[in-house]
Design goal:
Helices cover about 40% and strands about 15% of the residues. By secondary structure, the protein is of the alpha/beta class. It has 2 domains: about 5-15 and about 265-395, Aspartate Aminotransferase, domain 1, CATH 3.90.1150.10; about 15-260, Type I PLP-dependent aspartate aminotransferase-like (Major domain) (Aspartate Aminotransferase, domain 2, 3-Layer(aba) Sandwich), CATH 3.40.640.10. Bound molecules: pyridoxal-5'-phosphate.
Length: about 400
Amino acid sequence: MKTPVYMDNHATTRVDPRVVEAMVPFFTDVYGNPGSTSHVFGWDAAEAVDAARQSIAAAIGAEAKEIVFTSGATESNNLALRGLAERTRRKGSHIVSIATEHKAILDPLTKLGRRGFEVTLLDVEQAGNPRAGWLDPQRLGEAIRDDTLLATVMLANNEIGVIQPLAEIASICRSRGVPLHCDATQAVGRIPVDVAALDVDLMSFSAHKFYGPKGIGALYVRRRPVVRLEAQIEGGGQERGLRSGTLNPPGIIGMAKALELSVAEMPQESQRLRALRERLYNGLRAIPDVMLNGPALDDPALRVPGNLNCSFLGVDGEALMMSMRDLAVSSGSACTSANPEPSHVLRALGLSDDQTRASLRFGLGRFNTEEEVDFAINLLTDTVARLRKLSSTAR
Ligand SMILES: Cc1ncc(COP(=O)(O)O)c(C=O)c1O
């Protein structure tokens, strides 16, 4: 086993070597601009992009023309929210979402709020409930008003892995004539996602969450009934005018290959990840005062397979992480310069600041092994005990 061990697959994933192999020719041989219509270099690149678009669309139950390539889910979310709000403003100014969305939803919503839109952020089920983090669709139904122009609800949460009942939410939105956007970044490639079955109008996803490259993502934009958006990046008119800029063939081909592999391997892989997670949790729960955050682990419909989030009470998650240089996880107190706040997701579940700060998020993925899980359990058992001892002698 090689150290450090990577268990932060919600942040990003290693690019699968099979994906790298598929991408390489598009740097070196087929390097034309797919927008060049006058020569074979452009035609070859355009042909490969078309095939990749077709394959990505098929993997999520969409049509090729409904896929808009972007630089990733942050851009897709911005295009969906701002693009729709700007285009349909005259219909109303109210937007509904949930408190546990990713910052790539919450920040654009805050900005829209400053521009006169009214944003309602719904509460989710609280800690202690086996469905902690879950949105009761009825709550959404009650929040929709005559002037609601958009609802946006994520499919799977990036911290606690909870899966929202999108199909039920969509049916409420459809019956009230409200378009629905879904940030499916943590779901696509991990659980089955079909835009027709979910009946969403807009959906964001990103290749680097499913063993594809960073810097490439897509927005699904429904054509029947059509959803109209205002472009946020203008220029050469690529992507039917919705997202200008030269396309990224290596990224697009890599994204298609990565999604193809993830979908093909999903049935066995999700079972394997669930078993690894159970092993990890069983090991960690033997440590005194460990609390599971998020929904129950035993219902596959409620939580993505590789996600685990625990609080090690009395220990600071950041200090814990820093004491385990050989294990890459992430903490609920993520004191990065971009976000000095304790996790808004855990706080939305009703956790105290101390419980939030004591949390670690584990994201198990394709390249993790049982041996690595056992290593993580032993390391955490020792480190938590050592830090608790230190803080009790300091008192
Ligand atoms: C739920 C969710 N939405 C959006 C993003 C942003 O994706 P990207 O890195 O592709 O911009 C992430 C990535 O962390 C995410 O987990």
